[in-house]
Amino acid sequence: MHILQLAIPPDFPLPIPGNLSLLEFLIVLTFILHIVFVNFTLSFATGAVALEGAGIVKKSKRLDDMARICSFHASIHKSIAVVLGVAPLLIISVIYTQYFYTSTLLIGKAWLSIIILLITAFLLLYLYKFSWEKWENKKGLHFFVGLVASVILLFIPLIFIVNIVSMLYPEKWASANGFFHSLIHYPQIWQRYAHFILASLAAGGFYMYFYFAWKQKKQPLSDVEQSLKMGGVKVTFWITLLQLLFGSLLLISFRRDIMLLFMGDDLLLTVLLLVSILLTIILCGLLYIVTKKDTPNVFYASVICFVLIVALMGWMRHEVRESYLQSYMDEHPRTLDVQKENVQPIK
Amino acid sequence: MDFPIVEFPWFGNGNIVALIAIIHVLISHGVAIGATAIVVSTEYYAMQTKNAKLDQLAKQLTKWIVIITTTVGAMTGVGIWLSTMVIQPDSIGSLLRIFFWAWVTEWVIFIGEVVLLLIYYYTWEKWKEGKEKQKHLNIGIALVVFSWLTMAIITGILAAKLTPGRWVETLSFWNAFFNPTYLPSLAFRTFLAVTLTISLFTIFVRIFVKDEDVRLSLFRIFSVWGAISLPATFIFGLWYLKSIPEQAAKLIVWSTGLPEQTFNVLNFIAFGLIVVFLSWLVIRPKKLPVVLALGMFISAIGFIGEFEVVRESIRKPYIIYNYMYVNGITAAKAEAMNRDGYLAHSTIAKVKTITEENKIEAGREIYEGQCLACHTIDGWRSKRALANRLQGWPQKSIESFIPTMHQVRPMMPPFVGTKEEVEALAAYLYKVVNEQN
């Protein structure tokens, strides 16, 4: 009865093609690369729409120019984000097949809708970018196109989050009923969503600071570019402060024994968490200094801090999954060597 | 049946994957591979002849390549994968285990392709003169090579589904990748891509490029490419056709759902059309009729649709030839399921032991696991709708047909399970068919 209720399928008889530790390292690395570009895309698309909207209300050309730069960056980064997403999806399919396939099929139709949603959002982003001048006198329509694209982009992460959270809870599969029900059925979903959206805004702000600080070395920045650079720093500073709160909310939404792993029960995980909090505080300090006095040293230090925080977050995220699945994986082992008797030709 | 079932009762599960795949092949071959080759050669020709207008046209075409490939192209590519996960998890899951590193390699090249494409388009105005222009062209050439390489890798995986060759015995990755139809299908696809680009793009060039001189220059480039690609597509297509298994070749006409004569006539007309079209492009490019270009555009889409449907269907009853049936059942599973029961070995089945009370429910679960991959109860494709196929059949006839169907209809996999399970399936089918009719 126990197994029937959990419905964790046996692994395929064909073996996992490669060293497990190597694949785990690669999934963390490639996921970080992917998600950072997703962060940029989301933040520039929503940022462009917000700035354009503010520009319309305040009748400000300057805000409109800032919005336009954001939209340009959004449409480039979205191409990279999609491409980079292939690798982590490939690896998660291969090393967590029994959990990930089931959680995907439980929300099968929502999962398929990603294709239509992303195509629509991406086409709208191009229309938004390429029609900026042409539709100068149809500002409302232009703003609406960007808004629809942004809303779609803000919705899609929910599908992915439901999927990867649901794979951690095989005991809840039997009582789940499709995508929308899953949004409230599984714990952590909204905490993860909030943490992710805020991370996107912070990453986007940081990118603006990074990009224009780099550009500044070659040529002086225009007024608008300078505003984006300093605006980026401010956004990142405030959002990162907020993340200390939202990160904690996510931590306490974990199952108690897993939360406690990060609070002393496991030395490595506890150290990872403490270091990441410390680095976050340092980053906030550095960003604060930037708002007062921008120097190359502060710039490099903040870049290092940012990269380290992102890396630690990606690593901890993986450890959370491993901790949740550990007991199930012991009971339903993965195929690491070929089971010759189960891989027979059909004659 | 180890994973939850997602059902598309009207559209049909197999059609979901087919639809996405057809769109993807049109774009990956016709836009990403063929069109980049043509655009880069156009840039080269414009550079040689110092034709600034032609250069600008190449840039315009590239803008559309960027827009189409990074939206519909990329997302349908990922989409084939997302949809097969939902529709055929056993098959795509097994393919990932076999070809993981091929996919990783393809991914790395694909990143290169996208980055090169973005650089190629966005530096057009920046790298305009002399050495910089040459650098720009080189980026374009690298782009053509990268986009072809992604196809060269994916073709290995696709071809292996029809002809896994020695892999079924050795389980060697290399045997699976360099399988018997790999080279012929890669050669065919390479030239098909260029032919497809010409067929798809001509109508847009004819209508939207107003400057006649520039249009004729581009048509000249199309003609040169077409003179190479059309005969090559034909010759390599024949080679490909000769290399597929005999059993599969027999299913080609059947796969299209057309009577043999109609199939022959349609394909002959289509071939005639493209010969006329290309000849026209060579001989009288100035007077190319819009109707002809439009006809070519439509029949190219039709041909790709036919090619994809046939390629997927002639594998039947397999999804990975000689290893896995279209419903995800392998030899080892079939053996265990015939012994202990299909439901007993299905992780998600709620019914494990069949009784009079749960018979219909058990039948439904067996239907979902073994039939749904190709059939619907009452979907739009009437040939696959059981309400149509089993209309008027008594329950006993359904029951006696099921264990022998794979002999009568070789494109169907054998039923696996016990005698009680056959009865349950027959009882369920009889019930739903009569409710529909």
TrEMBL record, chain A:
GO biological process, any: aerobic electron transport chain
One cellular component term from this protein's GO annotations in UniProt: plasma membrane
Leader sequence residues: none
Membrane-spanning intervals of the chain: 25-58, 79-101, 107-128, 140-169, 193-214, 235-255, 267-290, 297-316
Top-rank lineage group of the source organism: Bacteria
Keywords: Membrane, Transmembrane, Transmembrane helix
GO MF terms held by the record: electron transfer activity; metal ion binding
Record-given protein name: Cytochrome bd-type quinol oxidase subunit 1
